Amino acid sequence: MDVPGLLEAASLLVPESTATDDDLTVRDVWDCLVQDDWEFALNLLEEHRDGPALPLAFWETLADAAGRLRMRRSTAWCHWRAYETSHGVIRAELSLPEDSPRRVPIPGHGVLRPVWDIGHRTPTGDTAFAIASLWLEGRDALEPGERATIRLAPLTPSLWGHLRPGQHFTMHEGRPVTATATVLEVRPATGGVASGRL
Questions:
Q1: What span, in angstroms and rounded, lies between the C-alpha atoms of 146 and 102?
Q2: Residue 193 within a domain
Q3: What's the pTM value of the predicted model, to 2 decimals?
Q4: Is residue 179 part of a domain?
Q5: Which of 32, 65, 86 delimits the end of a domain?
Q6: N or C end of the chain: which has fewer CB within 10 A?
Q7: Total structural domains in the chain?
Q8: Of 90, 92, 85, 82, whose CA–CA distance to 189 is shortest?
Q9: Are 32 and 57 found together in one domain?
Q10: What is the pLDDT of residue 33?
């Protein structure tokens, strides 16, 4: 299927009653397709990111279209949302202190996969770390001394099922704590199994 066909197919999966903050609708997407403005159409569809849950097929189709348009960040975001559809959403506020052992910014688009202390212990009482990639909302990087809202994509989602809003946990890239996090939101999977990986 070509890019316009993929975008058209994705738009058909969005309920007509759904609109973004700017009141953009699926009809606006169709107008973009008629004018061959495929990148803008894809961006409009991506704006449904925090609206009602959309089906797995929506995100997978959008990822395919973004990939064909060579829009790397959009492709990564759509794969991320497909993963969340299959495994659930975990959002948290991450604080990277100025005195953190990490001296360079945390990259924002799912490329970093650190370990996290989310409260699990080994039989001997040591920390049993869990692995999760992170995505910074609304920014490309997090500098030391800053905080931001993140989304997490756990390598083993079942290890993260006990998290609740307000709970604190830590990020590690070695022995000392790199950053601290507070859970903002936990949502269960909405269905489907993503075909790709993050």
A1: 12
A2: no
A3: 0.81
A4: yes
A5: 86
A6: N
A7: 2
A8: 85
A9: yes
A10: 64
